[in-house]
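Q: Convert this sequence to structure tokens.
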Amino acid sequence: MIAKHQIGESGLLRWGNLTFPHPALRDLTLPWFTIEADQPGPKLAIVAGMHPNEVSSMEAALRLKDYFAGQLVRGSVTILPILNMPGLYSHAEFVCPPDNKNLNFLSPGSLEGSFSEVLIHQVLHLWAQDADVFIDLHGGDLREEVAKFVMCQLTGNAEFDRTTRQLAHQFDADAIVEFAAEQTNNRGRATNELPWLGRHAVMSEGGANGILDEESVLFHVNGVANLTRHLGLTVDAAVARKRENVVVHNFDKIEAPHSGRLYLEVKTGERVVAGQRLGWMTNLFGEWQADLIAPFTGLVLMVVNHNITSQGEWLISLAPLEDEAA
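A:
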């Protein structure tokens, strides 16, 4: 079993370090918070720091423990504010250093896999096994900027999907990605895989370049807080939604056709039309190599904003806007 080594307690809030039973994780300890109300109710599991440079989402997790310590009236919330501890102080981009794998795309994990695969398995199937909702907070590694958006996976089960949509729509987002049940190009995230096991999950994205910014922090904090108000865990006033909250059903990668210099002409949250130039690439001498062209009308959800890129690198996430393309 997972061992929770408690360090402190204040009111409803407890905190400490977590260790895991699997031998692959014998040297790993993770900080945790648990807030438990006197009245029974839904259980939430919140994770941040799969990518340890995404500091706005990690700060949000820290603030949420204080919010719940003062506002939780039913149920319980448990938080892992930094999942990728092996990469924290080396500022590892995207990957977990013991095996250089991206934790974000390894769900549902494997007990027979490498370090990161085992870690995801233990988090999802031991630490969060009884959670009614799993919430995964992300937002902007060192060379990228992401729009403020939230993701959830639909399954084709009308009742289950209705609940999942309601959870995702508690965030005030530029876009809400309701992944279609039949999609196969965006898999491996906890929010993609847990619904197929009958478990509700949402994932929020908001931040840029490993920079702590208040707007992104509040996007995550207010979204989670609204979600818990929706579930009745808290009863304080909800935060009004003011962003566009455009619903999309997938997004595609636009990759670098060459290694060289990148010059973008679009930003996150921008609508583009099919055939529009999104940017261009040159070689290291500044000679043109290729234009980046929008393959369809869509909404820009993520851009890599470093001028130097490598062939095949994921540069832009573009979500189709079906109604506007018609």
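The mean pLDDT is 96.
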